[in-house]
Amino acid sequence: MQHSQPDPAKSASQGVGARVERKEDARHLNGRGQFVADMYMPEMNEVAFLRSPFAHARIISTTLAPETASRVVLRASMGDVLDIVAESALPTYQSSAQPPLASGKVRFVGEPVALAFAPTRAEAEDIAETIELEFEDLPVYADATTAKAATADFIHEGWTHHNFLTLKADTSFDALASQAKLVVRRSVDLARHCMVPMEGKAVLAYWDHQADMLVVYTATQVPHMIRTILAKCLGMDQGQVRVVAPDVGGAFGYKCVLQQEELCVAWLAKTHRKPFRYLEDRREHLIAGANTREHHYDMTAYADERGKILALDAHIVIDGGAYSVWPFTIGLEPGQAIGNLPGPYAFRGYRCVTECVATNKPGFVPYRGVARTGVCFAMELTIDAVARAVGREPWEVRLENLVSADLMPYVNVTNKHLDSGDYPASLLKAREMIDFEAVRERQRQGEADGRLIGMGFATYTEQSAHGTSVFAAWGTPVIPGFDSATVRVTPDGGLEMRVGVHSHGQGMETSFAQIAHEVLGIDISRMKLVHGDTAQTPYSTGTYASRSLVMSGGAVSRACKVLAPRIKRIGAHLLGAQPEDVELVNGRVVGPGGSVAIAEIAEAWYLRPDRLPADVDQGGLETTTGFKPKVDTGAFTYASHAVTVAVDPETGHVEIHDYVIVEDCGTMINPLIVEGQTYGGVAQGIGTALYEETPYDANGQPLASTLADYMLPGATEVPRMRIHHFETPSPHTEFGAKGMGEGGAIAPPAAIFNAVNDALQGLGAEVAHTPLTPRRLLEAIARAEAVQLRQAA
């Protein structure tokens, strides 16, 4: 398998591979974006939610003040609105019904119990504070251990245990494990934390009397799916519901499910025929959005004397919170975990049990790199532990375990179809860029200030654009299939593209224009992307799972390729030539005797049909075309990260000195966007590794409800990163592109922890629990010292 370097000549063009600055930045950098918070309508009411102060309790009574009762809504007031139920075909799955407002009991701190509305948010909050609630305490299951031990008072009625589901895999495990010379065990933990997009949940709904339609403006990644479920829950035809996603200020998975607040605000607009709006504040997000990443791994690696892994045994426990979300269900997280744990490695023995446990916390929502940040963390720390056990360099052991390029395409032990790439080459390049020998020499010399230098590596795969067969196996309520795009040449020769996905920072308005330019040659300044509006775009399940560029971008490419011969036929006729004698070059049809611009061809179709050939394609200069990859099990992006750190054993402080990334997302449509996505993902991964955590006490109370408690990396915590690109085109997609939006967030915790453990090796200490706070690091050093003292005694 050959990987190539990006072509510098592409940077001067506008097509695939060009470093085109994002078209959408012009409005965002000048404050002209349009977010839900920017919108205002006459007679609009603001909505505030009264949220549960208890993690698990029965609602005994609710008392409303008579003077404000007409502006308060309880679950009982909402008539026949359906609860949010996400069914799954996965075996052992237990479903949960999530009411729009708590009904009968509350299941986590922050669950909405009632809502109030008024002309201003302050007035609505004042009304909400007049509501008197009486609760009866129930046992609180604040973590997976206590939840699994429960024998009564379950979180959901009708359940007999607290496992949402249990998944199992066993492939040749016993036979291969029995051949091992070495057994290495490790326990690894990821803390629960939030997504923290710049914009929280935001929804505005009103009744369009002219169209006799409910219109919902919402900050969502999946407008078409939100329309589907809103119509179902509200008992409406989908033709009576329009969902519009305006500019969205970050999402990261948080906005790809139906939120209770969306359903409540839509119901208000349908019922009262007036506009209503809700904007989530930061405290609400930190409490009710604390819903991702909480995984525990017990890993046992069976290896030969050189560290070559023969078999892996894993037990994964995921704290899934109180509810299974629609549409992806709680099954997505454990399904991704059990399937992606082997990552880029070639061992053939595998046994894994993954349990997803219901607790009194907010329900799990997909977050950038769904489960793969966790499995990469567990797998990469285990690889380093094996290397230490056999006395070899971690990069050497990692290299020997990676799937080699000559085996591509490769079907791994969990039936993942790794389509293309050179995983070992990415690791070797990262080793070169981090200057491995110089770091080892620096460690030998020691630091004058007493700090310890460490170096760590991590390699991962990112399954992107996975489609029908994968989601059907997970049994989700909505199964993605073809994505469609409508492409139309305008009467003056511009181009209009309509897609059902929606951008929340991915630069689609630019990259999709580059794809169209590559096929048709129209200047991208004359292109317009319409997206995010169910009334104006073809259906798509939306933006998630690093799928948009591959799926909708592929549909744009296919649609443009449908239009190209139509354009050439009209152009040839205008030139007095045969279609086979002309070419479409830089937005012009070029023939033996001259050329004609697409603008002239468009004028002939729309305004001067007398100039058209008799056999013109009656489809004209507009088409809608669907696309999905030839193999829909996913395209596999991959990367190797390397990092050096300085660890202060006296204070527990960790400083990142250098960070390098070697990534391969197939053909890059726009390297500038690829790098921006990667840098942003790494920043989030640093947050996972060192800062972000929502701890809970034994009563299920969140202990980080403000940004004074919930730590985020800032400009001084994110180092300058160096990135190198390989380009190994996927054989299954348009232009060989692969999705890559999640990848940057996957590897940093693993690489950083491996670097810290490398620094601590001389002290005998090891860390394996995110975030790596100074307290946790100093406790690890203290434990190692205690062990050494006992051994000396």
Describe the SSE topology:
Blueprint: H1 25-29, E1 45-51, E2 57-63, E3 72-73, E4 84-85, E5 97-98, E6 105-106, E7 112-118, H2 121-129, E8 132-137, H3 144-148, E9 163-171, H4 173-177, E10 182-190, E11 202-208, E12 213-218, H5 223-234, E13 241-244, H6 260-272, E14 276-279, H7 282-288, E15 295-303, E16 309-321, H8 332-340, E17 349-358, H9 372-390, H10 394-401, E18 410-411, E19 417-418, H11 423-434, H12 436-445, E20 452-464, H13 468-474, E21 483-489, E22 495-499, H14 508-520, E23 527-531, H15 548-575, E24 583-585, E25 588-591, E26 594-597, H16 598-606, E27 622-627, E28 635-647, E29 654-664, H17 671-690, E30 721-726, H18 748-760, H19 774-792
Parallel strand pairs: 1-14, 12-13, 16-17, 22-23, 29-30
Antiparallel strand pairs: 1-7, 2-6, 2-8, 3-7, 4-5, 9-17, 10-15, 11-12, 11-14, 15-16, 18-19, 20-28, 21-22, 21-27, 24-25, 25-26, 28-29
